[in-house]
Amino acid sequence: MGYFRPAIEAMTGYIPGEQPKPGTNIIKLNTNENPYPPSPKALEVLRSLDSEWLRRYPDPFAKEFCQAVSEVLGVPADWVLVGNGSDDVLNVLVRACAEGADRSVVYPMPTYVLYRTLAAMQPADVVEVPYGEEFQLPIEALVAAKGAITFIATPNSPSGHCVPLEDLRTLAQQVAGIVAIDEAYVDFAESSALPLLQEFENVILLRTLSKGYSLAGLRMGFALANPKLLTGLFKVKDSYNIDAIATAIGTAAMRDQSYKNACAEKVKRSRTQLSTDLKNLGFTVLPSHGNFVLATPPDGRAEFLQQALKQRGILLRYFKQPGLDDKLRITVGTDAQNQILIEAIVSLLNS
Ligand SMILES: *Cc1c(COP(=O)(O)O)cnc(C)c1O
């Protein structure tokens, strides 16, 4: 007998974007971190840490954080489930709801690769439905696939497009299973699917503090859903999946909406500028509602550019897969970082 279950033997592990050592002099535009520091209020909590928080087990439900979410988003506190990053919540959701052919995982493509990885581990069958030419949601095919979970990331990565609320509503009406709406990038978008929570018991929203709140290293994410949908997930999650420090810092960050919104506004302005600059260099750039853009370099020399820029200390994300292998996903940095990127591209394209 081998060490691993057949499903684990057969699967490919998720490959995260490169994470260079902190302090390395690198412009890191490959994993959609926020270029601005976390809220000063969150940092204040970090500096005032009490050792007692470490000695004792944390609150298994991070209730203090749920309360903050409740006040900020106007959702009851018992509609919130907190995770060690939203990846943890995604993991719990797949563990609790998907299995085999009868309880499959369905999503439009291209999208976040982790959905496939989590399904492969379970294992649960996967149905991948291509997006339309202009990223229209393929509602009919998604419904026909009858997933136990249908994942929709909006704004989507790597495309950056938003799925219209009406399409999400139609989907939630027509599928019997769960519609999991991954709003990792909602802080950079104009709208959210929050209104659907009250309308549909089968809708779950996933949020994270990694992108909008500049706290990717903290590992904090959460789900919003009807308590009926959350009950099964609470059985599956680790008792202490969110540590005491994350809970305290995350709560302060959640309560500081004005700081988060101000950073998001800066990112959005820079996104416009970066898109314009790239287009002026002959790139095709998709309109984006996230803190990144998906751009096709002239002559499709995406892999060359990614490699050459890496040698110059600038990291971008390249996906070697059909439909994406001529494109680069570029995180929006500060204006200064974006300017350095643009200058490096100019010199590479001229060489
Ligand atoms: C970044 C990202 C996540 C994961 O966020 P964490 O909270 O850091 O685990 C989830 N979904 C999408 C689409 C993302 O881009």
TrEMBL record:
Signal peptide range in chain numbering = none
Q: Which UniProt keywords apply?
A: Amino-acid biosynthesis, Aminotransferase, Histidine biosynthesis, Pyridoxal phosphate, Transferase
Q: Which cofactor does it need?
A: pyridoxal 5'-phosphate
Q: Name one Pfam family in it.
A: Aminotran_1_2
InterPro entries cross-referenced by the UniProt entry: Aminotrans_II_pyridoxalP_BS, Aminotransferase_I/II_large, HisP_aminotrans, HistidinolP_aminotransfase, PyrdxlP-dep_Trfase, PyrdxlP-dep_Trfase_major, PyrdxlP-dep_Trfase_small
Question: GO:BP terms for this protein?
Answer: L-histidine biosynthetic process
Cite the record's note on assembly.
Answer: Homodimer.
Q: What is this protein called?
A: Histidinol-phosphate aminotransferase
Report the source organism: Thermocoleostomius sinensis A174
Task: Identify the gene encoding this protein.
Answer: hisC
